[in-house]
């Protein structure tokens, strides 16, 4: 069975703040599966051809994009109906009394006929104050199933940028990912 790899990362706060030094666990990501690789794996388990699966995956991607633009929530589930991933539109934005005071004071300085206000109104929360992103959640049951089935192996990185099993437990060969993402491999512990 494949093992999920992890490493310990050290956190040191800037300055001399007592009690701020700690260690935390970080997942080591070895690789990213492309649509083509995913399609090949799906094709191997079904009667579809790899190119057909790639077309379906691309269509799913397009449809999810279109649906979240229409303010719909998309849930991807397995054949038992267990939600794996839910994708949805998210919005953040706010307007405070301090924002309105600053803005109306600036406007009053340019045009004395414009009043200075000190209280924000709901109508002040305009679309230009909003930031839209996509959110995603992992189904609780799906996440619990993963947690029960995974095996963990601690790894450390050496100067040659090669991950080796830690002497603190675990065996096997580990190939590091790249970059500074979780599990990316350039920095040594």
Quick recap:
With 189 residues, this protein is α+β, with helices and mostly antiparallel strands. The protein contains 4 helices and 7 strands. The chain has helices at 35-45, 50-69, 97-110, 140-149, and strands at residues 4-11, 22-28, 74-77, 83-93, 130-138, 152-157, 163-165.
Question: How would you explain this protein's 3D organization?
Answer:
There is one protein chain. This protein is an alpha+beta fold and 189 residues long. Helices cover 29% and strands 25% of the residues. It has 4 helices and 7 strands. The protein has helices at residues 35-45, 50-69, 97-110, 140-149, and strands at residues 4-11, 22-28, 74-77, 83-93, 130-138, 152-157, 163-165. The strands form 2 sheets. A 4-stranded mixed sheet has the order 2-1-6-7, with no helix packed on it. A 3-stranded antiparallel sheet has the order 3-4-5. Helix 1 packs across helix 2 (50-69). The two termini are 26 Å apart. The relative contact order is 0.18.
Features:
flat; 4-stranded mixed β-sheet; 3-stranded antiparallel β-sheet; 7 strands; alpha+beta; 189 residues; disordered C terminus
Secondary-structure content class: alpha+beta
Using DSSP, what is the number of strands?
7
The order of strands across the largest sheet is 2-1-6-7
Low-confidence stretches: 169-189
Mean of the pLDDT scores? 81
Distance between the termini: 26 Å
| Total number of helices | 4
Helix content: 25-40%
Q: Beta-sheet strand percentage?
A: 25-35%
- Sheet with most strands: 4 strands, mixed
Taking Cα atoms only, what radius of gyration do you get, to the nearest Å?
25 Å
Backbone shape: flat
Order of helices and strands: EEHHEEHEHEE
């Amino acid at each position: 069975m494949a093992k999920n790899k992890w490493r310990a990362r050290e956190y040191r706060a800037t300055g001399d703040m007592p009690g701020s030094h700690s260690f935390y666990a970080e997942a080591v990501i070895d690789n990213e599966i492309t649509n083509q690789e995913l399609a090949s794996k799906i094709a191997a388990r079904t009667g579809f051809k790899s190119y057909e699966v790639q077309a379906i995956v691309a269509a799913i991607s397009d449809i999810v994009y279109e649906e979240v633009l229409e303010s719909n929530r998309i849930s991807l589930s397995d054949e038992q109906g267990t939600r794996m991933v839910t994708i949805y539109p998210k919005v953040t934005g706010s307007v405070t009394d301090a924002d309105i005071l600053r803005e109306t004071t600036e406007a009053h300085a340019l045009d004395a006929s414009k009043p200075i206000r000190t209280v924000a109104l709901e109508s002040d929360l305009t679309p230009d104050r909003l930031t839209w992103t996509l959110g995603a959640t992992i189904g609780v049951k799906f996440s619990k199933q993963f947690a029960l089935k995974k095996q963990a192996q601690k790894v450390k990185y050496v100067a040659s940028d090669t991950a080796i099993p830690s002497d603190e437990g675990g065996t096997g060969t580990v190939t590091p990912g790249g970059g500074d993402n979780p599990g990316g491999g350039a920095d040594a512990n």
